[in-house]
Structures are given as structure tokens and as C-alpha cells.
Amino acid sequence: MNRKSRRPSEQDLPLPIHRSYVDKVDGDCVLKVLADQLYWICDLGSCLSAELVDREHAPYTWTVRQVMEHCVDAERIWGDRMLRIAAGDTTNLPAWDENAYAAARFGLGNLTHLISELGNLRQANLLLLGRIVPAAWDQVGRVDSQPLTPRGIAWLAAGHLQHHFEIIEARCEISPQRLPM
């Protein structure tokens, strides 16, 4: 296990909601978890039909397309936050309203393009995490006045994606492969 990519402590990720996402993720190295999820991204996309993508599945209020767009937006935001905090940026970064993003972008994303964008963003975030020095993983920044580290955000990205993909699987009654065989 790489010391820099170890599981986060409460100093890395203090909010209980964030920790609840991370607690569901198996593994001890976030770089491996994030890389392994690339396979899941592709296989999940191949399991979704057009009928499933634009239908709301009660009790949820977002379509699967909106959830995928949300995951793309979140991955982009996680990358920006990891970069800025790792670089020592002391700006209190703003929260984001995922509902406003989902409402503003609904219907714009072709599912194939969304899957590609999500995979490309994940690969970019992995490259970013691979090039920052170990000490930068411990750099503390602020998001919505809450302390976070790049390590915490990386684990949050993994847990957030897992959370939404598990919901998509249950909603659509699909069973994509999560890891290569």
C-alpha cells in the first residue's frame, strides 16, 4: 500500500456524510480503487438501454441520464478541488448545488459521451494524483468552510461513484461487472 493513498482519517474527511460514502468502499489504496472503477464505468454504460436511461425510477426524482451527468460533474469538481488543495491554495472553495447542475444540464448528454467523459475525467484525476508529491496528499484546504485533503477528496470520489452506480444497478436491475475477470 502506498502511504499517500491510504484510507482517510477524520482529519482528511471530517463530515459524516462523506465518511459514509467512503466506508462502503473496499480496499486500502485509493489509486487502485479509482483505477478499478474505470472498468465498472465502461461495463455499466454497456448495460444501460435507451429505455432505462431517460425513465425516472420511483422513489428517485432524477433519470439515470441525470445521475450520470451528476457523476461527470462531480468527478470534474473533485479533480479541481484536489489540484487546488494539493497546490496549497487557501481559498475557501464553494459548495456546489448538484440539483441546479442536474436541472441545467438535463438532456444535453449523449450517454456514450457521458461514459467517455466520466472515464476521461477519472483517468485525468488518476494522473493528477500520481504526480503530486506525498506531502501534498496531507495538504488541508477548505470546501464550504470544511477542512479536506486531496486524500479525502480522492476517497470521496470513489465512494460517491460507488454510491450512485449501486443505485443505478438496483433501479435498472442490471449487474455489470465491476472488475475485469
From TrEMBL:
<dbReference type="InterPro" id="IPR034660">
    <property type="entry name" value="DinB/YfiT-like"/>
</dbReference>
<protein>
    <submittedName>
        <fullName>DinB superfamily protein</fullName>
    </submittedName>
</protein>
<feature type="domain" description="DinB-like">
    <location>
        <begin position="47"/>
        <end position="168"/>
    </location>
</feature>
<dbReference type="Pfam" id="PF12867">
    <property type="entry name" value="DinB_2"/>
</dbReference>
<dbReference type="InterPro" id="IPR024775">
    <property type="entry name" value="DinB-like"/>
</dbReference>
